[in-house]
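If you are new to this repository, start here. Below is one unmodified record pulled from the training split, so you can see the exact layout before writing a loader.
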Amino acid sequence: MSHDSIPAGDSPFQHEATARDQAPQFVLPLVVRIERAAPPARTDALETAARAVLTMLGDERSLGDGEWAEAMRDWQDARIRKVVRRARGAEWRRAEALPGITVTGKAAEVRVFPPVPLDGWPKELAKLQVSGTDLDDPEPPVEADGSAPVLWLNPDLDMSAGKTMAQAGHGAQLAWWELSDEDRAAWRDAGFPLAVRTADPARWPELTTSGLPLVRDAGFTEIAPGSCTVVADHPALR
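And here is the target side for that same chain:
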C-alpha cells in the first residue's frame, strides 16, 4: 500500500476496526537513553524521537529492496504502533549492538530499530522498561520557529514522556507521508529540523480543524481511544 496519501477513513491510528487490523501487527521499537545522573530534557527527547522515526523512514535500508524494506512495508500496512522503552549503562550498550540507528539531539539519544512482530521483540529490547520515562524540562522551551516544522501537542492531555515520544513520532510520520518526494528529500538533507511544543489551549481547536495531519490515538495506553494528540505543522503542508 502506498502511503503518499492515506485514504479518509483508513487512518493507521484511529481506534475503530479497519482492514489494517486484519494484517499481521508489527511495532517500531524506540529506546531512549536515560542515565540516572544525566537524564535528557523532555523536549529534547521528544524532538529526537520524532527525528529518529523520520530517519528510519528515509533511510535507504527502509526503501526499495533495502534490508529493512519488507519489515517497514509490513508495519505500515497494519496499525502504526511505536513503543518507547528506556535503557541505561549496559542495557544501552546491548541495544546499540542490535541493527538500528541512533539519533542524537542536544543531549538526548534515541535508537530506533526496524519493526518487529508485536510479540517478537529481541530479548535485549524485551527486557527494557516502558515505565520510568518521566522527564522534565529544566527551563521552558523557547518559542518554536515557524519556518521549520512544528509538532503541536494537545494541551489538555497528560502523557508520560515515553507516550509523548511515540505520539510525536506518529505526527512526524503523517507529515512525511503527506509530503512530495522533493519536500521529503529537502527535509532529510537538512537533517529533519523540527520542534515539539504544547499548543496554546486557545489555538488547539483551530489547529485540529486546519487540515494539517492530525494523530488520533488508538487508545491502547494512557489516554482514551480517539483522542487527538498531535498536529503536524510542516511549512510545505500549510
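Two things worth knowing about this chain: The longest helix spans residues 161-178. The mean pLDDT is 90.
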